[in-house]
């Protein structure tokens, strides 16, 4: 079975392309309903043949009132019956023309003095079809002349004495056919609109699910980038220190290896947590105490600073404001921004000192990271164009996700500065 194209919905065998914000989807559903309703053209041809055969059989059997001076069935009667069959066969494609023909046949039938009144039922099929296809207004426009023509056709045969009894019957039959057709047409329109609405809602749901999946992948990618970037940068520095002092000062080399082990263990724990979220069997294979998000928060800030200082970077921390617990998204974003900023200093800046300032305000958290490294014009261009990595872009995305903002740029007096404002929802 071929795979369906995008923006295509399958409902009961229908393949309907949907265009959001337009009526094309509804018309597509209507067309497909007509095209897949059991081969309408074939069904109408069979119906027309059955009506023609039944008409001829009833006439041959003498069903209906006796017509004085009636003609026997001949080729003319067969031709009129065949005309009825042809009109019914094309009634869906040409409903007005079919109704005109079906109304004309009884007049010719009775003028030719063929016996039988069942021929007067054939126009009711055309009246029903017109109402079902075009609505109740067209159905009313078809029912009125149909009733009049039936009255005239029967009057030609039965005479004036019977006309009074024929009028209510003809009007009732035409009205019933038109009403039934209008009801069926309304049902089809409601069904088409409902299916089109369902298709649009399904498409919207699928697009929303895809968007959520993309956002989740980006979030996980940022987490992996931050975890791996910080761990690998610190490990690289510590490994360089260990190689440098391994012969002269083995004790310092041992400390560097211990730091590498601790950083690796912490990084692997975070990565395991992130990947655990992606596993479908997490809820059945891991206990309830298994964390559902990577560790991170300002409660680990001291540990983060110790790791940076162990790599040879001096960090000066300045806390200002009333310290209080932060919402989890703000807490994690603040930690990751600081972590990424320190990682960039270790990897790209020849800095010895970093000044980290945290200011807690009632409605926002301000973060400022400044280093005393050297910044060249080439570094500035690379930072502006974003070719040196996704770290700064990731920090900006974290701030924007919280309706905050982040700037990262070289300082005029030297070094680099990262400044972030993170709003705190529902401040106490």
Automatic annotation (TrEMBL):
The chain crosses the membrane at residues 41-61, 73-90, 97-116, 136-158, 165-187. Keywords: ATP-binding, Kinase, Membrane, Nucleotide-binding, Phosphoprotein, Transferase, Transmembrane, Transmembrane helix, Two-component regulatory system. The keyword DNA repair does not apply. Pfam families: HATPase_c, HisKA_3. It catalyses: ATP + protein L-histidine = ADP + protein N-phospho-L-histidine. Its EC number is 2.7.13.3. Residues 333-425 form the Histidine kinase/HSP90-like ATPase domain. Residues 216-281 form the Signal transduction histidine kinase subgroup 3 dimerisation and phosphoacceptor domain. One of its GO terms (molecular function) is kinase activity. It comes from the Bacteria. SUPFAM superfamilies: ATPase domain of HSP90 chaperone/DNA topoisomerase II/histidine kinase. InterPro entries: HATPase_C_sf, HATPase_dom, Sensor_HK_TwoCompSys, Sig_transdc_His_kin_sub3_dim/P. This is histidine kinase. It comes from Pseudonocardia aurantiaca.
């Amino acid at each position: 079975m071929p795979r369906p194209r995008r923006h295509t919905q399958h409902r009961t065998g229908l393949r309907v392309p949907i265009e959001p914000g337009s009526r094309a989807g509804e018309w597509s559903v209507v067309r497909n309903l007509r095209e897949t309703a059991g081969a309408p053209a074939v069904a109408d041809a069979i119906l027309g043949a059955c009506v023609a055969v039944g008409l001829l059989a009833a006439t041959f059997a003498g069903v209906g009132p006796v017509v004085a001076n009636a003609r026997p069935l001949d080729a003319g009667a067969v031709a009129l019956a065949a005309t009825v069959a042809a009109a019914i066969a094309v009634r869906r494609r040409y409903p007005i023309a079919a109704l005109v023909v079906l109304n004309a046949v009884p007049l010719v039938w009775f003028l030719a003095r063929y016996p039988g009144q069942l021929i007067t039922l054939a126009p009711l099929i055309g009246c029903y079809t017109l109402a079902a296809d075009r609505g109740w207004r067209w159905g009313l426009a078809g029912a009125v002349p149909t009733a009049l023509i039936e009255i005239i056709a029967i009057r030609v045969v039965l005479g004036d004495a019977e006309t009074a009894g024929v009028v209510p019957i003809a009007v009732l039959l035409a009205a019933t056919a038109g009403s039934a057709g209008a009801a069926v047409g309304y049902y089809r329109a409601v069904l088409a609109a409902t299916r089109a609405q369902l298709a649009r809602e399904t498409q919207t749901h699928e697009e929303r699910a895809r968007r959520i999946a993309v956002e989740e992948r980006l979030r996980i990618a940022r987490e992996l980038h931050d975890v791996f970037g910080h761990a690998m940068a610190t490990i690289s520095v510590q490994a360089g220190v260990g190689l440098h002092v391994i012969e002269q000062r083995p004790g310092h080399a041992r400390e560097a290896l211990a730091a590498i082990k601790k950083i690796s263990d912490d990084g692997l724990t975070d990565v395991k947590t992130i990947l655990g979220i992606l596993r479908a069997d997490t809820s059945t294979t891991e206990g309830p105490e298994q964390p559902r998000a990577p560790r991170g928060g300002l409660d680990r800030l001291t540990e983060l600073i110790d790791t940076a200082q162990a790599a040879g970077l001096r960090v000066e921390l300045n806390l200002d404001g009333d310290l209080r617990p932060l919402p989890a998204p703000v807490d994690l974003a603040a930690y990751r921004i600081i972590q990424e900023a320190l990682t960039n200093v270790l990897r790209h800046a020849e800095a010895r000192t970093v000044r980290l300032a945290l200011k807690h305000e009632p409605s926002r958290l301000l973060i400022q990271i400044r280093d005393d490294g050297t910044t060249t014009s080439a570094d500035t261009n690379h930072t502006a164009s974003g070719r040196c990595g996704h770290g700064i872009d990731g920090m900006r995305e974290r701030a924007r996700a919280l309706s905050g903002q982040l700037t990262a740029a070289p300082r005029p007096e030297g070094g680099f500065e990262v400044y972030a404002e993170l709003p705190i929802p529902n401040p106490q």
